[in-house]
Amino acid sequence: PAYDEGQPMLGSTRGVVDEKQPACGFKQFCIGCCGCCGCSLLILLMAPSNVTEKFVKQQLDADAVYGWWSPPAPQPPRVLAELRNQLDRDTVLAPVGVHENMTFGFSSAAKMTRLLYSATKVEGVWEKVPHKLRGVFWMKGNGLGEELAVMQYGSWFEAEQMYLTGLAPLSWAWAGGKPEHAPFDGAMYGFDVTLGSAFSILGNGDPAISFSYQFGPCPSGKFCKAGTTGLTYADLQFHMRELTVNNIDMKSMFESSLPVPAWFSLFTGKYTLEEIPDTIQPGSHWRRSITWGVGGCSCFDFGGYDLVKVIDAEGEPLQPAYDEFIKYMGDVDLFAWSGFKAGTTPHRPTR
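^ thats the sequence. predicted structure below, dont judge the formating
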């Protein structure tokens, strides 16, 4: 788990862990049915995408591909170049293949938090993003070597309570080694494994993975306070290419690195973003709940973690989370996708 059982989570004034237990566990999970969720054999289809064809047509000029070029304003090339020059090392990690034009930068944890914030605080974008989603977040307890995430470079749609964001240069960071207290004893923290995980969601960058957050009232039984609005709960989906396709399934997640059969697409997940109440400031601590199952049914709780803000909306370290993160990383560097190799021209794909 991302926290010690029975102990209050970081920034919380109460022990949420004892009050919020998964709806059901592995013993109640079986292939083809999921009784604890009220599902049946008839529910074998992936949950529909948060993003409808109508939304794409009306809000995105009929372009269902969301990439680093999609927010209301681009990352200024001059600023990105200056930030890349501050990296301790900036290099190509895969000289041959689909990632050959992508560059990756390495820096200490302290420096990387600031680089990610600066690269994604873009005029014309940042001020339109909900305040709770601004800043830099630590994916505390994520067992895949993913450490830092930024959500403040994206597109907010107030009427629909929908937020879209994708991976852009200097917006996500992975561990370049294994921290001493890495989750699950660092089982997934070998550099080759972590790099493979990074490649699987980055693709060739044109585009990388994108995310949709559909906000709504907090349901009962979640970490957020039941019935609250004000961006306390969201259904989160990721999209490997088109926003109208929900890709939270085992086939989509592994086919870029492993040969998997088509029926793996039946094993699906549900991701949510749940704000922990009574924290240091609104939006400073979330639970990223993950459940798995078959088709539209998901009830096996596995893979969730805490999303903890370490750099606040104004670009300042948020304590005590920031110091805890720096201590956790120790002398292990972080790496991030920094952009494209000089002389290459990334293209903007369309549907």
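The CA atoms of residues 50 and 62 lie 16 Å apart.
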